[in-house]
Amino acid sequence: MSRRNDKNLLVGLDIGTSKVAALIGELKDDDQIEIIGIGAHPSRGLKRGVVVDIESTVQSIQRAVEEAELMAGCEIHSVHAGIAGSHVRSFNSDGVAKVNEGEVTQADVDQVIDSARAVAIPADQKTLHILPQEFIIDEQGGVREPIGMCGVRLEAKVHIVTGAASAAQNLTRCIGRCGLDVDDLVLSQLSSSYSVLGEDEKELGVCLVDIGAGTTDMAVFTNGAIRHTSVIPIAGDQVTNDIAVALRTPTQYAEQIKVEHACALAQLAADSEAIEVPSIGDRPPRRLSRQMLAEVAEPRYEELLTLLKNELRRSGLEEVVAGGVVLTGGGAKMEGLVELAESVFDMPVRLGVPQHVVGMSEVVDNPAYATGVGLLMYARQHRFARAPEMAEGPGLQGMWSRMRGWFQGTF
């Protein structure tokens, strides 16, 4: 197998409930990412984003990685991996520090971030991200890059994301058993935001919704920074289960029917359109109208969108997301979902597909790969900031190197 320049390779590993996707990107001289390899394999061993069977998960990761390596013609040694699940928690915090020399230095920024992260979190949780929102120098707010500015008192507002330590360790262990190092574990909706959102949307205010198979992840941005994240434990698998029960068909056929024929808005599905539905056991298949299928899917998606709207309202940010809602993820591709979401949220909604990369059109034009492409873009901005605390706990040296990367990437 031919070898490329390892330092120019970026690898994103999206370990989801329904599929594992490995994407290999090559960093070009103009800092653009070209996707040169992709591998996808059905995910066996995860439930709602959490590993429940290590052996099955390892096999799924191994096959996806091997497929990507074969396509790219290279070997990979480390990955940026996405992490999601109902165990993820987030909250906003702030800290205060004195500016020692009258001019803000990196040491002052490190100190104020350390002050902001000095909050009690449960023993079974670990910090995944500390994402700066803004800095305040002597009551002058809205500062994005404080280094070099004059002042006496420095404040920082940050968004802290934590996850179950056991979930992160199990994910890291599965990847390690495939012979790969984990450069970083990245929150899935944060990864997706890199690939599907524009800077103008983040400035104006936007709500990103990543609909997967096991969970639906939300992230809200305003003034260029992330303000709120949450996880809803309803997603594509629940729609599949509803179809299996309502149409009395095995789950694997229900998933296929959902992908190929389902519509999230019954009024868009013609009653004259018929689909063939396999039956359980030795019974012959039946023909049912597509509108009947839509009548099964619509209530579940409406329930999910209503929960998301309530979560957005609870965050207190509903009135400031002038950019509307962006739907992405594999579960967002269904016909009629954008129209249904517009009626529920009562604001503009669009489908988010990966942007800012070149290469394979089947990746660039598919929202199912939003997290994978976003991991490549995250890796590009943080490629010099490794995170040794992923395996051993929050080491200070690794944390500060990540801080420098966040200031460059978040703002």
UniProtKB/TrEMBL annotation:
**InterPro entries xref list:** ATPase_NBD, Cell_div_FtsA, FtsA/MreB, SHS2_FtsA
Question: Cellular component per GO?
Answer: cell division site; cytoplasmic side of plasma membrane
User: What are the UniProt keywords, alphabetically?
Assistant: Cell cycle, Cell division, Cell membrane, Membrane
| One matching Pfam family | SHS2_FTSA
Any one biological process term the GO annotation gives: FtsZ-dependent cytokinesis
Q: Which SMART domains match?
A: FtsA (SM00842)
Q: Which SUPFAM superfamilies match?
A: Actin-like ATPase domain
Q: Where are the transmembrane segments?
A: none
- Topology versus the membrane: Peripheral membrane protein
Residues in the signal sequence: none
UniProt keyword annotation of ATP-binding present: no
What is the protein name stated in its UniProt record?
A: Cell division protein FtsA
The record lists the organism as: Marichromatium purpuratum 984
Provide the organism lineage as a comma list.
Answer: Bacteria, Pseudomonadati, Pseudomonadota, Gammaproteobacteria, Chromatiales
* Gene it is expressed from: ftsA
